[in-house]
Give the backbone structure.
Amino acid sequence: MSATSPTDPATSAKAVSAGVPSLDVDPFSAEFFEDPHRIHEVLREAGPVVWLNKWVVFGIARYTEVHAVLNDPITFCSSRGVGLSDFAKEKPWRPQSIILEADPPAHTRTRAVLAQVLSPTAMKGVREHFTATAAAKVDELLARGSFDAVADLAEAYPLSVFPDAMGLKQEGRENLLPYASLVFNAFGPPNQLRQEAIERSAPHQAYVAAQCQRENLAPGGFGACVHARADAGDITAEEAPLLVRSLLSAGLDTTVNGIGAAVYCLARFPDQLARLRSDPTLARNAFEEAIRFESPVQTFFRTTTREVELAGHHIGEGEKVLMFLGAANRDPRRWENPDRYDVTRRTSGHVGFGSGIHMCVGQLLARLEGEVMLAAIARKVGKIEITGPVKRRYNNTLRGLESLPITMSPA
């Protein structure tokens, strides 16, 4: 992974023009997915901006640059795709998102609608049910003792509250996780993961498209609330299903991987579980620290709308810039002891949910679910032990576990 010269003269000229090191790093490889932290350090130490030969894009892995790009949506746009594909040059694999893949002023209007639907007041309305369901789930798992913390907890809990809160029908919910995984895989390059996900996607896409329609959403759920904003004239009737789709895309996988990461952290850092047990009010912060530490969303792209100077390097118009959110969240320039999981750390500023106008639309839901689950664990669980092989789930954008066998003992 040392600096090299790209073989393509055109790409070589871009790297030379920008004055950045060229790296033979593939952030969409099995090697990277298994252990990104070693490569993150290579990326950060190579410079504030690097050139990635494999995919012919600029990369940024330090906190300062990642945060700056996330907070400059006019220069680094999302409407040309937040994956490797450039929508100015190729057709999106599906109708593009009117929230994630949109720029102001169009984004401002649709974002305001989702901010109303998923407001802090709306979260208060579901908090009691989410809390009771989390406590019941922990009681059930403690009675079992040994289980898989991914399938039986990190997936099972969100699937027990999120679809109901959205107002989805019971039938077909098994499509939700594969659909979300597909969406995040599709942000990557045309590798095997992306190709296979899209090839398998027809039933998942059909299910989600149907669930986004008004007649299939229960009254009072978040989905119906989005359609109500169309009645109020805030969005059009055609836009409402696309906004519901955004919630179904963003509301589950990041939560699943976030809760899985938190349990994995508490199992590996028993002193931090003890600290959380001594003060259950740290549950929210323990979840935030797990998001920083493991970064369930690892990468996103932006596209430059003009020639720009970034950290003293010249980048032309129409260039893809790959942000390494996971690397930024462990940048020692920003975080003290970044490779330590610490439930008392001041986590404000982490980019695990993004930053700026495109922060994760489902973040309040994810934070609520993560907090109440960790609070239940803090009150009820005395010990978490890993009892079998831990397996990674590979995805072009997400970092999470396929399997985490554990035994939980009561407090």
Residues 120-144 form the longest helix (25 residues). Confidence is low (pLDDT under 50) at residues 1-7. The domain at 9-410 is CATH 1.10.630.10 (Cytochrome p450). The two ends are 46 Å apart (CA to CA).
